[in-house]
Design brief:
Layout lengths: L2 H19 L3 H10 L16 H13 L2 E4 L1 H9 L10 H8 L2 E3 L6 H14 L26 H5 L33 H6 L5 H18 L34 H15 L6 H5 L5 H10 L19 H9 L2 H13 L8 H15 L8 H11 L2 H7 L7 H15 L3 H4 L1 H7 L19 E6 L12 E6 L1
Antiparallel strand pairs: 1-2, 3-4
Helix pairs in contact: 4-5, 14-15, 16-18, 17-18
């Protein structure tokens, strides 16, 4: 019989006597003396738990089939602080492991103890949460394992004190002063008086117990409703990208990281510790200096406290002028392809604007709309410009409407035929020009009417700048 088999048998015997004698103080004192079970939360109810024990318990139930613990487990866990990790007594380790209840047999005893000591050491006595990130330990703690369960259960040096008063009277019938022995059979007595046969007496007692259980009223249990907030456990469904600085796009990296935060249910106070291991090269060097800033950077993105927020500091550091020039050139030179639809072109313009404006600068809505119009295919640009949309959304919706209309006309929707028509581009008062010497010149453009139901003006006078 292995240690966990014996532990399970002890629990069954202990709980059977709880059923027979109840849960009064007198019964508890009797059971802790003659049928002791250190994992019983009735005899040893758990009270205060340290944050380290709570962290341990969350890890333990994740990797082992543990379901309950007693105050003995909490007390013995705190006793570990009195020893170096490689000098924790075997008796204390054994009594600690058997202070828990399991719904199935856990790992074999040596493996279980080794795993606990390894994580205990790697997490600085569970001051670090081993479930926070993917946990890979390379340290293996060697300990001797010949711990007998009797030694673990009877090791008074590490016991929690009894939480009941031995002198207090209970409300049950008086309990026996000694464990109830199993009487030896006496053939002569059995022959003279069959009623004294131990097996007969046992059968009668079982029958009486069954009748009592059948006739007993159903227990009335009133459990008050308690609204306990459910805290989502942090997951590891989506991996986090690394960031090394240089030409790497910081805006894309932040967007990918924040998508992973959402998928993995990462709390705000955990976001910085999660991403720091993924800063490499110059980014890692920057964080070494940034963490010394006072007041400290201790939150991800607080609109009311940018000085202590990681995100704005990160953008300022890695949104370089070279990247700004690159993004602006891509934005102003972006053109809709011959076979590219308006939706795809619009998404690209939105992404480039988000990068260009990530440093805090904001373009006027009319300027954004004109950038979008300038990059449209000639037939769409010529059709949308007379309406002079004031926002990017309005320009997109107008271009989308013309595109749908053109699809019904093979002449307009044949990009190769349209290229041969060479429709001249139309300039509006919102064009962005780097030529400071250009004068304002009124221009009147005659524009084709592509769809009669859209009713655009046939001519439009506006200013070039």
């Amino acid at each position: 019989m292995n240690n966990f088999d014996q532990h399970s048998r002890n629990i069954v015997e202990h709980d059977r006597h709880h059923y027979l004698f109840g849960k009064t103080l007198q019964a508890i004192n009797y059971l802790t003396k003659y049928y002791r079970d250190d994992s019983c939360s009735i005899c040893y109810p758990s009270e205060e738990r340290s944050p380290q024990f709570q962290t341990f318990w969350a890890w333990f139930i994740t990797f082992q089939p543990a379901v309950a613990y007693s105050h003995q487990a909490v007390r013995r866990f705190e006793k570990f602080k009195n020893f170096e990790i490689n000098q924790i007594p075997d008796q204390l380790l054994g009594s600690f492991i058997f202070s828990f209840r399991y719904n199935e047999e856990p790992d074999d005893f040596p493996t279980l103890v080794n795993e606990f000591l390894t994580v205990y050491q790697e997490t600085d006595r569970f001051n670090i949460d081993p479930l926070a990130d993917e946990y890979n330990s390379e340290t293996f703690v060697e300990v001797p394992f010949h711990i007998d369960i009797d030694m673990a259960h009877n090791n008074d040096q590490f016991d929690a004190p009894l939480l009941v008063d031995p002198n207090e009277d209970g409300d049950n019938q008086p309990l026996p002063q000694q464990p109830i022995p199993i009487q030896q059979a006496n053939p002569q007595v059995h022959q003279n008086n069959p009623q004294n046969d131990p097996m007969t007496l046992l059968a009668q007692q079982i029958g009486n117990l069954v009748l009592h259980m059948q006739n007993a009223p159903a227990p009335q249990i009133n459990i008050p409703a308690v609204n306990v907030p459910v805290q989502n456990r942090e997951l590891n469904l989506v991996s986090y990208p690394d960031f090394s600085g240089g030409e790497q796009d910081p805006v894309t990296w932040l967007e990918d990281v924040e998508k992973a935060f959402e998928a993995n249910q990462v709390r705000d106070n955990r976001k910085i510790p999660v991403v720091i291991p993924h800063l490499k090269g110059t980014a890692a060097t920057w964080w070494v200096a940034a963490r010394a800033i006072r007041p400290a950077i201790d939150r991800w993105d607080d609109p009311n406290n940018g000085g202590q927020s990681f995100r704005p500091h990160f953008i300022i550091q890695f949104r370089t002028s070279a990247l700004e020039s690159k993004w602006f050139a891509q934005l102003t030179q972006r053109k809709q392809g011959p076979t590219e639809d308006v939706d795809s072109y619009h998404v690209t313009i939105e992404e480039l604007l988000r990068r260009v404006e990530s440093g805090g600068h904001r373009y006027p809505d009319t300027a954004k709309a004109q950038m979008f119009i300038n990059g449209l295919r000639p037939e769409l640009s010529a059709s949308v410009s007379p309406f002079m949309p004031n926002t990017l959304v309005a320009a997109y919706e107008r271009a989308k409407a013309f595109e749908n209309s053109f699809k019904q006309n093979s002449l307009y929707y044949n990009p190769y035929l349209l290229n041969s028509l060479q429709i001249p581009p139309v300039t509006s008062p919102y064009v962005i020009s780097t030529n400071a010497s250009s004068a304002n010149v009124p221009v009147t453009a005659s524009l084709p009417v592509a769809s009669s139901h859209l009713n655009p003006p046939k001519t439009k006078t506006f200013w070039l700048s």
